[in-house]
Amino acid sequence: MTAAPLPTLHVEQLSRIYPSGDGQVQALAPLTHTFPPGLTAVVGPSGSGKSTLLNLLAGFDTPTTGTVSVGGTVLTTLTETQRADFRLKHYGFVFQNHNLVSILTALENVEFPLMLAGMPVRERTDRARALLALVGLEKRAGHLPSQLSGGEAQRVAIARALAGNPELLLCDEPTGNLDSRTGELVLGQLQDAARQGRTVVLITHDREIAALADHHLQVRDGVVSAVD
Ligand SMILES: Nc1ncnc2c1ncn2[C@@H]1O[C@H](COP(=O)(O)OP(=O)(O)O)[C@@H](O)[C@H]1O
Ligand SMILES: [Mg+2]
Prior knowledge:
It holds the Pfam family ABC_tran. This is ABC transporter ATP-binding protein. By secondary structure, this protein is α/β, with parallel strands linked by helices. The protein has helices at residues 50-58, 80-90, 106-116, 121-134, 150-161, 180-195, 207-211, and strands spanning 9-20, 23-35, 38-43, 65-70, 73-74, 91-95, 168-172, 199-203, 215-220, 223-226. The chain has one domain: 3-Layer(aba) Sandwich (Rossmann fold). Helices cover 34% and strands 28% of the residues.
């Protein structure tokens, strides 16, 4: 499954200041960067601003200064509804906690975004099955999240993230709750997604996982710098 032609993910003078008590925290210092296709690992200690960056890249949060653009579309120029629609078309997300819907089976979880996108039921079931096969979980299609191991649930979450064939995949500590071997399996899925032409941004504080990425960014006290 090859991703559609890639809209470049670019940030220009992107920063975020949060109010904090009487003062403020510069969670992200002004950053100008183009995220290349492939897997970019973002490493940095807890509280350094990694999730702040990811939330801005997704348009979940509004920057204090600067812009996030995807293929020339500046996220802040879109309305909330347009942004949600844009995310559905172009983004996939994987978080530390798989965030699967507990009352839906693995298959239904993967189908869910396709249903939102209005895909007919037969087509979306076929696609969801193919995606589960891609992450090696076709035999788990009928299982509820509670019946899956942590690594399996995370792979279902990846299948779900890939359902709409997004060009961008944003991952916040997806291996954070997994043992290192399972973490590497999950990473392998993200590498595959990147090889298919996607731009994958992977936040991790696991240096061994980060070492396997194509590109590397480091965050310290809100300052992002390239390390390759
Ligand atoms: N919604 C928020 N309101 C106020 N401060 C926040 C908020 N989100 C994050 N911060 C602060 O911004 C800094 C960076 O946080 P975060 O991006 O979550 O770091 P990381 O993901 O690297 O652990 C921290 O000092 C954190 O306390
Ligand atoms: Mg974080």
